Amino acid sequence: MNILVLNCGSSSVKYKLMEMPQANVLAQGVVEKLGLEDSFLRFKLPNGDKVVLEKYMPEHTVAIDFVLQTLTSEQYGCIKSLKEIDAVGHRLVHGGDKFSKSVVITDEVVAKVTECIDLAPLHNPPSLKGIAAVTELMPEVPQVGVFDTSFQQTMPEHAYMYALPYEYYEKYGVRRYGFHGTSHRYVSQRACEFLGLDFKKTRIITAHIGNGASISAIKNGECIDTSLGLTPTEGLIMGTRCGDVDPGALVFIGEKEKMSYADLSNMINKKSGVLGISGVSSDMREIEAAIAAGNERAKLALEMYDYRIKKYVGALAATMGGVDVIVFTGGVGENQTTTREYVCRDMEYMGIQLDNELNAKVRGEECLLSTADSKVKVVVIPTDEEKMIALDTLELIKK
């Protein structure tokens, strides 16, 4: 069975065609600069060669149609016709508290996702356009929505509520939702498979860290707390997002700088984080190069980034009465050895003992990094959100 996984952004469409249940990747690529004259489709051939096809794609239906044409083309295709696509799985960012699991897409589901646009005004509209495009181009093909927020819907009320006037929760749904849920779900389950543990009887901390970053506490198969909140700005320090900050500081800066709400939002989402502290970049490779060149602000930015992760590991372990497994994933979690070493340093009191020599060698591969006598297992598990989406899609359409 072939499942097409789509991740529609405001100016991009990422896709992966997978043969299930084997999870063989038949094709993958991305449309970039959607809506601009110089938009293009970029993908890799089975032999590793990169291909870029330039075409003006003004909106999502044209982009997805071009992807489908390419998948079935004589020159670049991997299938002969669209009839070989059995289902489409969509990454949907925000389902509010309306969705606690993945769902087959119906008119009712579309209406509920539309109701959540206020919670994710930059993300939900492109996803809805992607659903509409597939409906138009392949009306008979079933579609499934997999939500970034659904995995965290098991959080208890005392963990997801904010200490703001309760009326704002009732009127606007202001609460912690969390994001990256598909990744947290995949790597926590995969870590238990890798280690031979029972997912339903294990306390896990998953650190999805990269340009965007979040950390979750998963106890006996359910997420009980997470760092991201109503929006993707709370919690850990990120590439350009501030993470936890005294809201009073934002009021203070806003008044001093005569900022509008839009200006304030732009600052905390696009000008803060590692970029804001270092003044160099949001890319950790450039930060490490700047540190090597003696840049003190870059050094401070990385230490703040690492420290915040370490702090959350301790906090989330407390919520579960301890931890059995710590999972590192995401671009930084899978590849930045110094961050993993910093987070696990001086954590022996929690039962964490890292094999530093092994850790220094591991990049982008599944690996047990803790020592044989470490009570807590520390692992790297590369995330695969597309596989998780494809698995959910497969399960639902079989039903």
TrEMBL record:
<feature type="site" description="Transition state stabilizer">
    <location>
        <position position="180"/>
    </location>
</feature>
<feature type="active site" description="Proton donor/acceptor">
    <location>
        <position position="148"/>
    </location>
</feature>
<dbReference type="GO" id="GO:0005737">
    <property type="term" value="C:cytoplasm"/>
</dbReference>
<feature type="binding site">
    <location>
        <position position="7"/>
    </location>
    <ligand>
        <name>Mg(2+)</name>
    </ligand>
</feature>
<feature type="binding site">
    <location>
        <position position="14"/>
    </location>
    <ligand>
        <name>ATP</name>
    </ligand>
</feature>
<dbReference type="GO" id="GO:0006083">
    <property type="term" value="P:acetate metabolic process"/>
</dbReference>
<comment type="pathway">
    <text>Metabolic intermediate biosynthesis; acetyl-CoA biosynthesis; acetyl-CoA from acetate: step 1/2.</text>
</comment>
<comment type="similarity">
    <text>Belongs to the acetokinase family.</text>
</comment>
<feature type="site" description="Transition state stabilizer">
    <location>
        <position position="241"/>
    </location>
</feature>
<protein>
    <recommendedName>
        <fullName>Acetate kinase</fullName>
        <ecNumber>2.7.2.1</ecNumber>
    </recommendedName>
</protein>
<dbReference type="GO" id="GO:0005524">
    <property type="term" value="F:ATP binding"/>
</dbReference>
<dbReference type="InterPro" id="IPR000890">
    <property type="entry name" value="Aliphatic_acid_kin_short-chain"/>
</dbReference>
<feature type="binding site">
    <location>
        <position position="385"/>
    </location>
    <ligand>
        <name>Mg(2+)</name>
    </ligand>
</feature>
<dbReference type="GO" id="GO:0008776">
    <property type="term" value="F:acetate kinase activity"/>
</dbReference>
<comment type="subunit">
    <text>Homodimer.</text>
</comment>
<dbReference type="InterPro" id="IPR004372">
    <property type="entry name" value="Ac/propionate_kinase"/>
</dbReference>
<keyword id="KW-0547">Nucleotide-binding</keyword>
<keyword id="KW-0067">ATP-binding</keyword>
<keyword id="KW-0460">Magnesium</keyword>
<dbReference type="Pfam" id="PF00871">
    <property type="entry name" value="Acetate_kinase"/>
</dbReference>
<keyword id="KW-0479">Metal-binding</keyword>
<dbReference type="GO" id="GO:0000287">
    <property type="term" value="F:magnesium ion binding"/>
</dbReference>
<comment type="function">
    <text>Catalyzes the formation of acetyl phosphate from acetate and ATP. Can also catalyze the reverse reaction.</text>
</comment>
<feature type="binding site">
    <location>
        <begin position="331"/>
        <end position="335"/>
    </location>
    <ligand>
        <name>ATP</name>
    </ligand>
</feature>
<dbReference type="GO" id="GO:0006085">
    <property type="term" value="P:acetyl-CoA biosynthetic process"/>
</dbReference>
<feature type="binding site">
    <location>
        <position position="91"/>
    </location>
    <ligand>
        <name>substrate</name>
    </ligand>
</feature>
<keyword id="KW-0418">Kinase</keyword>
<feature type="binding site">
    <location>
        <begin position="283"/>
        <end position="285"/>
    </location>
    <ligand>
        <name>ATP</name>
    </ligand>
</feature>
<keyword id="KW-0963">Cytoplasm</keyword>
<keyword id="KW-0808">Transferase</keyword>
<dbReference type="InterPro" id="IPR023865">
    <property type="entry name" value="Aliphatic_acid_kinase_CS"/>
</dbReference>
<feature type="binding site">
    <location>
        <begin position="208"/>
        <end position="212"/>
    </location>
    <ligand>
        <name>ATP</name>
    </ligand>
</feature>
<dbReference type="InterPro" id="IPR043129">
    <property type="entry name" value="ATPase_NBD"/>
</dbReference>
